[in-house]
Structures are given as structure tokens and as C-alpha cells.
Amino acid sequence: MDKPVVILAIESSCDDTSAAVIRDGILLSNVTASQKVHEEFGGVVPELASRAHQLNILPVVDTALKRANVTKSDLSAVAFTRGPGLLGSLLVGTSFAKGLALSLNIPLIDVNHLQGHIMAHFVQTEGDQLPHPSFPFLCLLVSGGNSQIVKVEGYNRMTIIGQTIDDAAGEAFDKCAKVLGLPYPGGPWIDKLAKLGNPQTYHLAEPHIPGYDYSFSGLKTSFLYTIRDLMKAHGVDSVEALVEQVPNLKEDLCAALQTTIINTLMRKLRKAAKDLNINQVAVAGGVSANSGLREAFIDYGKRFKWSVFIPPFSFTTDNAAMICQAGYYKYLDNDFCSIDEVPFAKTQI
What is the mean pLDDT of residues 277-289? Predict the structure, then answer.
């Protein structure tokens, strides 16, 4: 009887330390330690993130192995996020993965973080066989650092056909939330308040970029100008004072912002699906947790006869399960990496 393929994966690209275990394609555990320290700074502080990873990585990996009921000697390979991400954070995960693989004399597998997000659609848990897209499919990959339309023809055959030329959608959410005085991360707060607001109260400029590319810097500027003009009209010199004077200001601005971002994302995705004649459409990345975007996918699926794939909430944010899944496919192809490979901050798929 063949020995089962058991992969341990480590994800440390930003501020979440995560480890997961897959055996023969079935996810056995997925453990993540989040870092609360960044909330008071309104964004991730790279130095603090890397220090926290050093504290978290050993207990997270140990917990993942125990929950999966496997030992180090059972492992077939170690997969890790090589990039893109924060270099300091990536170095912690990369160094740990290399050390463990060397000590066990087993292969090392490097995984592209963005490809991992897309491969989250193929994660299967025992007794819960989730539907997954068939090749080729389009994936809208949206997060704090990326907004891309990716044509996926195989686990290792992905082509970016559209991407942001400046800011990402998630970045627009977070920075506009900061202007309103909302806690970090701002995306979930925007989503929560948008449900209570009227998206028609304020008009924000929608970017118009040729082809399938995106731009969100102009939208942020429009958001700032809207607040500036409101402050001038009401004779106040702070956002806090404006909020006190204008009923439902935060709710209506959040609703307008969220609606504009979603319309921008979906309009380009619709164009790509139509031009390429692809009706298998998925969404991935942290912003895929946004309720408005999820509803838009369901609506577009019905209107344009798409087969729509939306990941479970547990696989939207950074997690090792998606790295493990990508690593499992690479293991089956004997696609291993050298111990000399180094992490990278930015890359294309």
C-alpha cells in the first residue's frame, strides 16, 4: 500500500501566522494566529508583524500537526508561502520551512501567495466535498494589495488579463475607512455600515480604464473631495464634527463607496467573461468576504448564466489551507524548490 501524501504548509505573508495539514488531498487542520497589535496603528507595521510571526510560528505548527493527528515523521513535504508579501514576515515562514524540511530530509515546496488564494476553491475537507470550478475559469482576485482578473487554465497555468494600475480595492476600502475614523481593518466596517446606508445619497466618480484593468486612486480622491465639500458646506473643520451634523453620513458614504467599488469590479469581470466566452467565474482574496460583492456574484450568475464559485469565509483571508492545496498539486508533479530560494515581496502570477 502506497504511503499517504502528507503536506504541512506555512503561510506568513502579512500579519497572520498559519499552518495547515493535508493528507491525500483532504484538509486535516488549518490553524491561524492573528495579530491584534496593528489595530492601534491603523495598518500593519512590518517590524511588529515579523516579530509576532517568530513568537507564533512554533505553537501554530505544533497545533496544526496535533489537530491533524500526524507527526513530523509522517510528513511527505513542507510547503510555504514564498511571496508576494512583507519580506520580514515571509523570511520567518521561509526559514522555518527550510529548517524543518532539512531536518526531516523531505522536499520543500514554494507557493505563490496569489495562486494560493485561487487554489482555495479546491480545498476539500473530510465529509464535505465542496464544488469547485472546472478549467478554464476566471477568478476575480481582490485583496488589500491586489485587484486582478486571472484566467485559470490549470493549477500551474494562470494568466493575469487585468489588474489595478495603482491602488487595490481592499486598499481603497481601508484608506477611506481610516478617513472616516473607523478601526483597522476598515473593510469589514465599511461592509457593516453600508448595509444601513443609501448608496444614492452621494455620487463618487467611477474610474474608466481601457481593457480589463482597474484603477482605484481616483475613487479615493473623489471620496476625499466629497467629505471636503461637505465640511465646507456645513462650516466644520473635522470629520467628527461633520458626522455629528449630518444624519447617516458614515452609513451613506460607506454604501456609496462599496457600491462604486463593486460595480467597477463586476463591470470589468463581465466584459472579460463575455469576450473570452467563459462562464465559470470565481472570486478569491480577503475582499471576497464582502457581503455586497458576494451578492453581486450571485446576481451576475443568475443574469448571465455563470457558474459562480465563492469561497467559504474561512478561506477568504490569508490561511495555510490554500497554500497546502497548491503545495499538494505541486508535490504530485514533483515540482519542488531548492533550499537556496529566497522570498520575494512583489511578483506576477
Answer: 97
CA dihedral 165, 166, 168, 171 (to 10 degrees): 180
The CA dihedral of 165, 264, 171, 232, to the nearest 10 degrees, is 110
271 near 172, Cβ under 8 Å? Answer: no
Q: How far apart are CA 132 and CA 123, in angstroms?
A: 9
pTM for the model: 0.93
In the chain, beta strands by DSSP E: 6-11, 16-23, 26-34, 77-83, 108-112, 124-125, 137-142, 147-154, 157-163, 280-284, 307-309
Copy the grid coordinates of residue 109. Answer: 515546496
Q: How many other C-beta atoms can be found within 10 angstroms of the C-beta atom of residue 99?
A: 12
Q: Which domains does the chain have, with CATH numbers?
A: 6-130+316-332 (3.30.420.40), 137-311 (3.30.420.40)
State the pLDDT confidence band at 117, using cuts at 50, 70 and 90: very high
Phi, psi of 146 (to 5 degrees): -140, 140
| Averaged pLDDT, 273-296 | 97
Strands (E), 43-125: 77-83, 108-112, 124-125
CA torsion, ordered 103, 109, 114, 116, to nearest 10 deg: -90
- Report which of 30, 5, 7 is spatially closest to residue 19, judged by C-alpha positions: 30
Scored b (16 or more CB within 10 A) or e, 9-34 reads bbbbbbbbbbbbbbbebbbbbbbbbe
Q: Which residue has the cell 467563459?
A: 278
Which residues 6+ apart lie within 8 Å of 267 measured at CB?
none
Encode pLDDT of 41-54 as tens digits: 666 777 788 898 99
The single-letter DSSP state of residue 200 is T
